[in-house]
Structures
1.
Amino acid sequence: MNTHPELIVMLTYNDCTVRNAAEIFEQCRNSKAKYWGFKEKPLPLEDMKKLFADMKECGKTTLLEVVAYTEEECLEGARMAHACQTDYLVGTKYFDSVNTYCKEHGLKYMPFVGEVTERPSVLNGTIDGMIREANEYLAKGVDGIDLLGYRYTGDAKELIRRFVQEVHAPVCVAGSVNSFTRLDDLKEISPWSFTIGSAFFDHKFGDTFAGQIDTVCDYMEQK
């Protein structure tokens, strides 16, 4: 495991990929973040493929996060991830068919847990139930969990704390990491990773996109 949570830069706003994602990545390609991704909507597939190829050419680890809840939509998201040759499929409601597809095509798979609805996503459910659910999926061979921690309608910090403590696998805290206070929470709890998308576009961590990325990376490395 890494010694501090890894930042995953998401070129997304309100759970949709921004239209100028490729331009922003080009401006930030030399920033400190190792992990990059975006959502399955609304860019055309060929644009997605090219952007992911550019990321990989720069040595980045890539993720497609799919906000989908039906089995067919989730499977289509997995097919898109494979077509784009991403390293990870994150998100989707868990389905055995999606898990099987990911195994057959060399995709690491980190599904949602809990009752996930809407877009931007909202998370409901009990903490105990989500931990049980995660451990069931891990027993089926998924590679980790995409936890919508700060989208939780209950006690978000308690959910993240208990989840990371009781789920022995990589946990990505996805969504609404938008303050240094939340970065402090994540440094204390130490999940595998966390995503930031909208907060960078809202300049929550500084003036420029690349500058914010480096600010967050440096902050997470501080003791």
Note: The chain has a mean pLDDT of 97.
2.
Amino acid sequence: MGKRITKSKKFIIIETILLVLIISLLNTSYYFKNKILTIDKSMIDEYNSLKENQKNKEKELTKLNNYYIEYSNIDNKINSIKEEYFKYIKNLENDIISGKSNKKIAYLTFDDGPYYNTYKVLDILDKYNIKATFFTTTTNGTYCYDNRSYECFKLYPEYVKRGHTIANHTYTHAIRYGLYSSADSFIKAVKDQEEHVKKYAYGYITNIVRFPGGSSTARSLKSPIIEKLRENHYGYVDWNGYDGDGGMLSSKDETWNNFISTINEKIEVILYHDYSRYTTALLPEMITYLKENGYILLPLFYESVMIKK
């Protein structure tokens, strides 16, 4: 009887141990199941987050692609706007010449730059919201003639940024040193300056030329040079208004008197030099004078009646 009880106790002990093991295994299983579910949820959340992030990145990429397409077409858009703008001015010129319009136009032009002083000129033009034309040359070299510590070629992007017309005044401006030795030497100086402008002004192309000293300076070569310009699709322009700042001026009064005595045409092309301290000092008054006398101040363009082709 005692032995059977002992066996029964052993059986109970074994059963208890097995039960504990089973419960322990169940608890462990439950723990790991919850752990796996937690990991799965975390992974799902991370996956969803990555998917959402991908969608946002795709939206950004689409937006950037649209910007790129827009940027790629910006030159065409700018040229289209310019064409419309200049077409309107051309019609206005024709109406002024025919007498259909009583308006007047003044084209402000600045020769021989860039100079360090050009910044002052540009700031004045900005203040009055005026766009002008700058006939540039490279004769002064890399550094500004009036500030040898400053690289003047930095002015080229500035012309473009501020909306002005860049025009061609030849690469050398060497009136007495070979520029007018032949039509070929002249056209080479024009093409060299065109390449220089393109290099420093975001690929800007200009087809307007001013003869250094004016077209009469070419003398007997004037006709052959004009023919070369036509062959290369350039037009040229002189001037009918000026303040004399290219010569020896003695005072602001002399500069002002030169200016007002030459402003008498319905369409004026006014010659200035952006190194002149007298012109820079009087420019605000000159702009005011022109406006008060009915002039619209505009930048030159190839199709203008003032550009000879």
Note: The chain has two domains: 1-72, 84-298.
